[in-house]
Design a protein that fits this description.
The protein is mainly beta and 141 residues long. The protein has a domain of 91 residues: Roll (Pnp Oxidase, Chain A). 7% of the residues lie in helices and 45% in strands. The N and C termini lie far apart (54 Å).
Length: 141
């Protein structure tokens, strides 16, 4: 739900979920401020740490089916204000490319990698394949 707007910032009601700095699960309704230059900031009562992941869901009328939470990384955390809220800057998390795509991209760029194994205990390398066809390498150490 859209709350207010000025020339530079849009404000929305959101639900934030994830784990707080005490590793307790949190669900909190909060206000997200979206400024094109500064990014997205959320005023939270629960303390989170920089680099934590939280899930942000826009609070809309229930009849909208595309109201899924978005995974975000916490980039910066401010001190508590007079109301006891912490201003948290977040950025949307991007999915990682599958290992095979990363390896193919590196190989196409001419990058090679090597792995050094300790001489004792690494007696055998077993290659397996999972359901998707990706190779799983198990090295007993």
């Amino acid at each position: 739900m859209y709350i207010a707007s000025d020339e530079a910032t849009d404000t929305f009601l959101v639900e934030v979920s994830g784990w707080d700095s005490s590793n307790k699960f949190l669900v909190e309704h909060a206000v997200l401020s979206w400024n094109g230059e500064e990014g997205k900031e959320i005023a939270l009562r629960n303390a989170v740490r920089a680099s934590d992941m939280v899930f942000v869901r826009l609070l809309q009328p229930v009849d909208r089916s595309e109201n899924l939470p978005v995974a975000c990384h916490v980039i910066r955390v401010s001190d508590r204000d007079m109301d006891g809220r912490i201003l948290v800057r977040v950025a949307e998390s991007r999915p990682r490319a599958p290992f095979r795509e990363n390896a193919d991209t590196l190989a196409a760029a001419g990058v090679t990698t090597s792995v050094s194994l300790p001489s004792s205990g690494a007696s055998q390398v077993v290659n397996e394949t999972c359901d998707r066809g990706d190779a799983i390498h198990r090295i007993p150490l």
